[in-house]
Specification:
4 helices, 4-stranded antiparallel sheet, 4 strands, alpha+beta
């Protein structure tokens, strides 16, 4: 006999689905508003090369990799290590400096390199 007063089992699934949809939608919106530094972190070497062109340096050390780009305003180093999800190398750390070696904001350097 079916109890018509019992809560539907579909309701909790629908709620979980709607929550997941909301989370994914929020993440997609946040992606478009990320700062230049955050748009680089998590990128593959191929994605970095598409953004900035051929790197001045491409150094492999075991499963780590360092890519470097230079422009008139700054030097950008991107360090890639195997990602936790795919195991493919992705940018996990970046460092920016002026030609004289003094520190500069990475977002400023990224924007300058993209203009070149």
């Amino acid at each position: 006999m079916i109890d018509t007063n019992a809560p539907s089992r579909k309701a909790p699934r629908m709620i979980r689905f709607l929550i997941l949809l909301l989370i994914l939608s929020s993440a997609a919106t946040a992606q478009t508003r990320r700062a230049p530094r955050e748009q680089v972190i998590g990128s593959s070497a191929e994605a970095m090369i598409r953004q900035f062109g051929t790197p001045r340096l491409d150094i492999h050390d075991g499963d780590a990799r360092k890519l470097q780009w230079t422009g008139p305003d700054c030097v950008l180093d991107a360090y890639l290590y195997p990602g936790t999800v795919t195991g493919q190398p992705v940018v996990t750390y970046i460092e920016a400096r002026r030609g004289d070696g003094s520190a500069t904001e990475s977002s400023t350097c990224i924007a300058a390199l993209r203009r070149n």
